[in-house]
Amino acid sequence: MRKRLYILKSIVKIIALSSLLIFKACYSYASENIQEVDDYKEWTIKFNKPIDKYSIYNNIFVKDSKGNVLTNPRYTILDNGQVVKLKYFNNKYITGEIYTLKITNYIKDLKGRSLGYSKFVKFKVKSILNYESEYIDINQCTQQIPIIGQSKLLAKNMAEYVLKHNKNPELSINIYDLANIFLEEGKHEGVRGDIAFCQSIKETGFFRYGGQVLPEQNNYAGIGAINNSKVGKGAWFKSPREGVRAQIQHLKAYATKEKLNNMCIDPRYNLLKEKGVLGIAPNWQNLNGKWAVPGKNYGEDIIAIYKRIEKIK
């Protein structure tokens, strides 16, 4: 009996050890070594095979020490889906805070197969790289600025500010021409086209995209793109001018009950009209929680970009 019990215990031990060996490769641990990075760190994730680009959203992200997921990540997909670059803009990080970059095993290859295991990387932000010439305290951007009004910025300065941060904006048009279109379309509807351009900088990450909107959509403000929806589900426009016009019209819908001067091409204008919310956000800061959800400091971030361009001589 004792011999049989000894044999049984030995078998159980063997099974237990085998399980550890079998499943060990499926575990992934966060590195105890915490990297130190600056706030403009761009993470590069390489895969051994092309992945389904639609599966990366919500599956590659950064969390703070309290478990909160940082919003508005900017993804760039390279090498036919074998390389993904991740970056956050607008000072999402806090100096000294410990964050975790997570790549989950819900990411799939082109055949629908999931990754073998998740990956975690802990890091600490050592410095916030606010260039002195561009530094704007977000608290200076709370003074209400109307959406309706005349533009003040020069198209040249608007375009060059983008090129300073992104030498190759993903556009089907010259960035200088796009800036001019914003000023022209804004003038037609009485909307601040220069600040609308700043909104597009925020929405697209200096026209890098990588979120839920594709460059070829000519959708510079995420119109129709809802949180957690598939990439490309937002509005599509035939040309850059149509995309800008729709954005200007959508802004006018939020800012005032006045009728549009041009034919309506904003696909969501009538929806706002039916809901009786025309004119609900006369100022840029009023867009918080309306244009963007949850949208904390959404309008202030836009005004901060505007003030940076305003400082260009």
From TrEMBL:
This is Mannosyl-glycoprotein endo-beta-N-acetylglucosamidase-like domain-containing protein. One of its GO terms (molecular function) is amidase activity. Keywords: Signal. Pfam families: Big_5, Glucosaminidase. Residues 1-30 form the signal peptide. It comes from Clostridium botulinum C. It comes from the Bacteria. InterPro entries: Cu-Rt/internalin_Ig-like, MGlyc_endo_b_GlcNAc-like_dom, SbsA_Ig. Residues 36-116 form the SbsA Ig-like domain. Residues 180-310 form the Mannosyl-glycoprotein endo-beta-N-acetylglucosamidase-like domain.
